[in-house]
Design goal:
single chain; mainly beta; Immunoglobulin-like; Jelly Rolls; eight-stranded antiparallel sheet; 23 strands
Amino acid sequence: ALIWSQVAEALTRRLQQHTEQWTALGFEARVTAALDLVLDSEPLLQSIHQLDFTQRQALSPVPAAPILQLEECRLQGSVAVLAWRPQPLAPAAVEGYLLELDDGTGGEFREIYTGQETLCTVDGLHFSSTYKARVKAYNKVGAGPYSKTVLLQTSDVAWFNFDTKATHQDVALSNGDTTATCMSFDDRLVLASTPLARGVHYWELTIDRYEGQPDPAFGVARAEASRDAMLGRDEHGWAMYVDNNRSWFIHNNQHTGRAEGGIGKGSTVGVLLDLNKRSLSFFIDEMQQGLVAFLGLEGPFYPAVSLNRNVQVTLHTGLEVPEIVLEKDL
């Protein structure tokens, strides 16, 4: 019993020693509870201040090139109609379009329309010319690429009528603005609706009424020509004036080229403006009147006629050059 008591006492003391050792043992953190961390935000702030948000918007796409709708484009005389549409399923929005046209001689393009429409009518084109047209779309980001270029070939033969806005108020126009009747005893000027700047053009005027041996004048003029004087009296007109027996050429009130042969009711006066050769010639009933009337001409010119109340004329355009002229050229 004594031995067991000693053994138990020894075990108790040893257990007590181990317990004291574990109780004294603790875990110490290798780092402190408070993190020693400092953030440097200065570089980030500088980057934010340097941002250009207008440039950031430029990352959005510009519109795609529009598609010219050739089946809807048309050309009649000196007037062209151009149509286009945006690219299908294009990701970028379209706010408008820019239509450009060259000068018909291969020169630089110029802007002729800006807006949201997809169809544009262009008038005032020169005859006997080949124009180039193109269009591009734009939005807030900028303008996109150009469409394909379309060629516009105007007619070699000019079609026109008299211009109500450029004609003296004493002259009445009828028959689709091709017949001119004057209500004044004094000479009054009538201008055509379309200027001619290129090519070779021939037109005729038939004499519907001719009374009292007046002398109407036929030819071309600048837009600045006097409306209340005979064509050719000033520096802006080149003409042939004719009575029932003979004719004269006149420019800047200088009279030249007297030739026999006059007009009457039913006669036809032809005007040939050759802007390739820069010349002007006249015909009566398909026969050339004298020699070439004027040389060294440079357009644009408006076909013109001056008349008084004793004369009525009707204009005929879109005519081919007389065969007699073609034979001379051969």
